[in-house]
Amino acid sequence: MATTAKAAIVPDLAVDLAPSHPSGLRLKTPVLTASGTFGFGDEYRDVVELNRIGAIVTKTVTPEPREGNPTPRTVETPAGMLNSIGLPNPGAEDAVREKAPIWKDLPCPVVVSISAHDESTWTELAAQFEGLTNVVGIEANLSCPNVAGGLDFSTDPDRTAVTVEAVNKGTTLPVIAKLSPNVTDIRTIAQAAEDAGAHALSLINTVLGMVIDPDAGRPFLGAGVGGLSGPAIRPIALRCVFQVAEVVSIPIIGIGGIVTGSDALQFFLAGASSVQVGTATFREPRAAERLVSCLHEYLEKRSQASINDIVGGARY
Ligand SMILES: Cc1cc2nc3c(=O)[nH]c(=O)nc-3n(C[C@H](O)[C@H](O)[C@H](O)COP(=O)(O)O)c2cc1C
Questions:
Q1: What is the pLDDT of residues 191-211, one digit of tens each?
Q2: Which domain does 47 fall in, by range?
Q3: Given the CA of residue 280, which atom of ligand 1 is nearest to it?
Q4: CB of 27 within 8 A of CB of 81?
């Protein structure tokens, strides 16, 4: 009897990170670069095939220029690193003037990360990135541990809600709320962000940590405390994604210690619709690009048609 060969499936890696937004946030692939670990995109354009990654998330931009925290600002830790960079950036006006002409020509879309101080400055800041070619979303960094008050926006549900509303007021783009793991129950904060109109959530920013130099008898980092990132925080990030996926219906972007294809897959199975790669990029600039190939191979091997089919697969 003649056998018919099974047609090979070409897996679809496309995702929409903002289905609740009128224009959506459709990306070709579900791997993005994490804020603060990929500059403004132009720094990597000769090294990475940017057209293969879903989007770049820029360094967080603040209303005014910032120099950042006193040095040293980074230190290696077991399976990770601690940073207290403190959001050095050129400020919104210069960022738009200098970077928007570059973003326009990048071969992948750009999500601009922003951080401000109070309701009105969040609104004004978001508005400064309106109408820029190839800028497809705003990630509100509600969770920077390295600036005064930076964590406050995502440690209290009411404050989170007010801030998300303020950002939405300033922009017509999809708004992604980036949350902190440094809270008692991240689910209440995530729900507040969703109820206030966030179109997606980024989970997680860094975990508060510290290193002490025993010879000097003082904290190693100039700022004393910093944010831990890298594989050391992956189980924490995964737990956050899993818990939040049970209580929200907007897409989740998983972030934290992702290095291998297997790491990324765990986030999808926990309920993330996409992932961001941060610290891994410092060791391997093309890490995000490599992960796209890993996801493609995984789906192909299992004859899965779409990455969306595996999201949230790891429930009890
Ligand atoms: C050196 C460094 C700078 C960072 N700067 C920012 C930033 O400006 N804005 C932000 O939202 N997150 C920032 N982050 C946090 C990352 O975007 C990411 O949430 C975190 O590092 C966890 O992911 P990872 O373990 O893959 O690095 C920074 C992280 C590092 C290591």
A1: 999 999 999 999 999 999 999
A2: 15-67+82-208+228-310
A3: 26
A4: no
* Mean pLDDT on 127-151: 93
Q: Is residue 222 part of a domain?
A: no
Number of domains in the chain: 1
Q: How far apart are CA 177 and CA 251, in angstroms?
A: 11
The encoded tokens of residue 287 equal: 């890490």
CA nearest to 308, candidates 26, 70, 47: 26
| CATH number for 301 | 3.20.20.70
Indicate whether residue 85 lines ligand 1 (CB < 6 A).
Answer: yes
Q: Which of 77, 82, 206 to mutate to test the pocket of ligand 1 (most atoms within 8 A of CB)?
A: 206
Closest C-alpha residue for ligand 1 atom 3: 36
Cβ–ligand 1 contact at 37 (below 6 Å): yes
Summarised one tens digit per residue, pLDDT across range 64-80 is 999 999 999 999 999 99
In a domain, 45, yes or no: yes
Query: Mean pLDDT across the stretch 213-229?
Result: 96
Task: Determine the Cα–Cα distance for residues 29 and 268; give it in Å rounded to an integer.
Answer: 13
**Is residue 76 one of the residues assigned to a domain?**
no
- For the entire predicted model, the pTM comes to 0.97
Task: For ligand 1, say whether the CB of 230 is within 6 Å of any of its atoms.
Answer: yes
User: In the predicted model, what is the mean pLDDT of the chain?
Assistant: 95
- Pocket of ligand 1 contains residue 92 by CB under 6 Å: no
144 Cα to the center of ligand 1, angstroms: 9
Cβ–Cβ < 8 Å for 134, 58: no
pLDDT bin (cut points 50, 70, 90) of residue 160 is: very high
Q: Is residue 1 included in any domain, yes or no?
A: no
